[in-house]
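To the team - iron/sulfur cluster complex, inputs and output below.
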Amino acid sequence: MNWREERTKARNTNNISKFLNHPNYLVRDGLLDNKNITDDILEKLSHDNSVQIREKLAKKYIERAIKDSNWRVRYAAINDNPEVPYELLKDLLNDKDLRVKNKAQRLLEIQKDYIYRKDFDNSITIKLVIPGGCNANCNFCYNKHTTNMQKNSSLLKEQWLNNFLISLEQIVLKIEERQPISIDITGNEPTLDSDFFIKVMHKLRSFSLKDKISRITCTTNGIGLKKVAPFMKGVVNYVNISVHDYNQERRNKTFRTYNPTDEYYKEVVQILLDNNIHTSAVAVIYNEINNFPKWRDEFIKWAEKIGFVSLRFRHNVYFNNNNNFLEYMNNTINDKNFYLIQKENTPDSNWCQLTTKNGFLVFFLKGVVDTYKVSPGIEFIVHDDGKAYVDFNKKIPFENYDFPIGYVFDKK
Ligand code: SF4
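Output:
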């Protein structure tokens, strides 16, 4: 029997101890994939004379691993590990290997300034910023505040198409299986160049790591949806259409250069539904609203009539004194016509999910412009140049991110 056959046996055997002292470490390594393996056996393997096996078990037996004679085992114990106790890291500051020492130093710095969010049970988001412009001209548009948005040239778009999956892969592979991953396709206006958007759909459909993505959403003002919707089927799970107001006249004033009608929304929501995609309406609240409860309730009625499954209120992230938003949110939470499902307050967002008596979902989300500044790790960006970043302003390339990846940290 060759070693490959023996390793397959080791992976499936009920007689694990038979393989424990096998002379070939590749066969013993097979035991790590055996579903029947016990903690006792794993503990024994953590003393194995194979560095490869000890490396694989380093995080589980960290106290032993950081005393290992091989630097690779000590490094594996703390690399991408946010839970190394402070005392162990302090000891490693005297490690004879500079790589281990530097890694311990960085983890101690992180522990000083950040709290590791242990109970994070949501997905890590990757924003996919489609290059190009927008047909609307909202005065609160976040793209007006970011510099270097790439211009709408076909050469840049071609380069983006060639590069964005590599960047996506770079991030997904680093997150490993630690958290579910969701992709949010955004822009400028992602569907403005509908032919380009369709090419993006084709690429995403054949993305080799697609099974590692738990869901894909798209945030759009809806301009190109009629044409692109059939190509989103099986790729995009959920669409958010920014509508901002239920009243046509006020909506026109917000978009300034785009005047979508109720009939148009009805039509695109139906087309999306026919392609198994649910659609939410989004409204950025960017100024004070007279009689908010009345406006909100009219908005909900309108959204239900159009066919949206939920309504998402967001605050204007560039307007710091937007306290009205929290007042509107709390007003709704305290309204007996709504039932609160979830509420969360973290450094990167203050949000809640409610339902009306009819089961229509309403969300309030007060987020921040740059999640990296307050909660690194919660979001990564594949930007409009096709490259991976950790912040929306493209200041920090993904390869320079020096926190454990796949975990979320909150600034103290
Ligand atoms: S629709 Fe969106 S991207 Fe376009 S101007 Fe308005 S906020 Fe900006």
